[in-house]
Amino acid sequence: MADSPEDHQPALFLKYFSLVALTLQNTVLILVMRYVRTRPGDMFLASAAVICQEFLKMVTSLALVLYQEKSIKSWLKYLYDNTIDQPMDCVKVSVPSVIYVLQNNLLYVAVSNLDAATYQVTYQLKILTTAIFSVIMLKKVLSIPQWAALGVLFVGVSVVQLQPSSKVEENVAVEQRPFIGLFAVIVSCFLSGFAGVYFEKILKGTRQSIWLRNFQLGFLGIIIGVITMLFKDSTQFQEKGFFHGFDFLVWVVIGLQSFGGLMVAMVVKYADNILKGFATSAAIVLSSVASIFIFNFVLSPQFTIGAGLVMLALYVYGTYAPQPLPEKPIH
Question: How far apart are CA 219 and CA 54, in angstroms?
């Protein structure tokens, strides 16, 4: 028997709530993140921030698993049965854990060397990598208009990126190395595409909840993050300490990053990774408009045209999704 429309309403609500929340989270995150990485004063260790982000994600996920299981006894049994008792399953989750930690460190490098608009625009290349990995790994089928929408989106974000550098009047207190920032964000796009699709495959291919999977990601991410910090920032860590340069705004960035990870998990569970990418690309418009007031960003014709193409791509992709084939009657 087919599900009634009422049965689909909670899932539909979660789908669009997670997409809207992810868009807003990305908008605020890039603005605050850019500010704390370019302001004068003591600079915090990006690797330390990533570890804190993974810790917060792990604790939040543990709390949600406890809420799901209703009692501490059931909670402990659930964690034991799905982690310690299934070591190979945890090994499987370690793949995206390593990639996400590396990606998050690279994003701090990127946002430290690229202005907010360029960072947001360039990072949307992950939508194309996600689409390609989704087709290859998940056997997803995209319609011809959807492929065209991906092309239009790429052109749109590229046009935004072509705006003159003089249009951005941003005072920063650290040296800018655009080539390093560009390289970091492009590598992050490929890592994001693969890890996102791989994680989606794990979520949709097992019965474990998204909160358990995020606990596993966070726990393994802490271990990998500590190893990364000891290799990358051991001298600064020993001289200045783990929390050097941390203040309220740094904790805001950490919180937004952790919240974004949980939102991504909800999106890939109730929607899909490509739709997640389009929702994130909508943050380009919001963050660029906000940059007008925060970073003296000047709206250019290139940005206007590019943003219009992005919105067109959003509409086409959502409207022309492939329809499932009708079920054949059983004789």
Answer: 7
